């Protein structure tokens, strides 16, 4: 297996085994984003338990807001990545000690990423640092709070507007960012989010109270993130927090934002990931860009198209909520370029933002370079990075590196039995890459014939 599929797309089993490949790529001007693949989800047993208890909806929510958002409820048929949802390996939550082990693995990854002449990057997964069920519940709270704002705005005739354009006219005018700031993740969440119960004539919590243990889980996730960020600073590495399923993502993004507020004051250390196949991607990007501008920290983003499309659509269809994914590939392309242009404009405006264009699409890469030229953004500024998966689209990565653009390979590593399911999901979600593989074979054959004809069979990089 290591001589075939694994050898093509995985760098090695541990951080020591991958060092030769990292050094080889760097000789061609291509850096590495190290990724020890760890993915979490709700276990089926836990989902069944939650399903039987009726989740965490309160009477106030039922009376005042309506039914529970189905996509933020544990469902036993989608309790894991088994069954009808294919392709992703799952590390189920065991206990806090296991989360600490995941943190130690990420620390090794960070240290392996440091000490390079290029900026070092390391990828982490938030669901490996805490109990997924907590992230699910926290996501529901955040989404419900935003939906409550949208409901109030609609009562003032502000519906149908862009997220940042909606404002509530109270004693003073407030927008979505002001509204979101009312939730402080470092306070007691159970004291927040109350709504009127018309029948009882009193305020009730939007959701049932967090237990003391759940409050501690929030603090432990933040503490682990804080430790990882400190190691990143010490080793000159930037952390990329991977995006995950939509039912986890609001909590992941909010906790990432909390870290950005602390560690991105002087330079971009923490990068959040935005999945542009989501209908709400542009609103998420523009709100976070505006928040970073108001609070004075460096916005840092990785833009991807997305990696959970089939699972998300099947789950939405089976459970019965709106598909969160854009209707087709062209819609996703337009969303990607719209988000990208927003960030590039912000970089040109004040040089206080960074973006990694994580894409295998040649048109997107060409669009980025064209926009950089139009805006006067130079590769040497290290504000715009490019990224592709290891083993894919080398015909994009290596010419960019040789031309002086900061470009990186996303380098998964780990034991075969842990990494292969991760790659299986990549194959499921990116079937269109086979067309790119055909083109890459044609380019390789053309280059081989050129070298044979010119007597330059061996090549030494100039970088």
From TrEMBL:
Q: What is its EC number?
A: 1.5.5.2
The UniProt catalytic activity note for this protein reads: L-proline + a quinone = (S)-1-pyrroline-5-carboxylate + a quinol + H(+)
- Offer one example of a GO biological process linked to this entry: L-proline catabolic process to L-glutamate
Which Gene Ontology cellular-component terms appear in the entry? Answer: mitochondrial matrix
The Proline dehydrogenase domain extends over 92-432
Q: What class of enzyme is it?
A: oxidoreductase
GO molecular function, a single term? proline dehydrogenase activity
Q: Which cellular compartments is it found in?
A: Mitochondrion matrix
Pathway per its UniProt entry is: Amino-acid degradation; L-proline degradation into L-glutamate; L-glutamate from L-proline: step 1/2
Needed co-factor(s): FAD
Q: Which UniProt keywords apply?
A: Acetylation, FAD, Flavoprotein, Mitochondrion, Oxidoreductase, Proline metabolism, Transit peptide
UniProt entry tagged with the keyword Mitochondrion: yes
* InterPro entries, per the entry: FAD-linked_oxidoreductase-like, Proline_DH_dom, Proline_oxidase
Q: Which family does it belong to?
A: Belongs to the proline oxidase family.
Q: What does this protein do?
A: Converts proline to delta-1-pyrroline-5-carboxylate.
Protein name, entry field: Proline dehydrogenase
The record lists the organism as: Seriola lalandi dorsalis
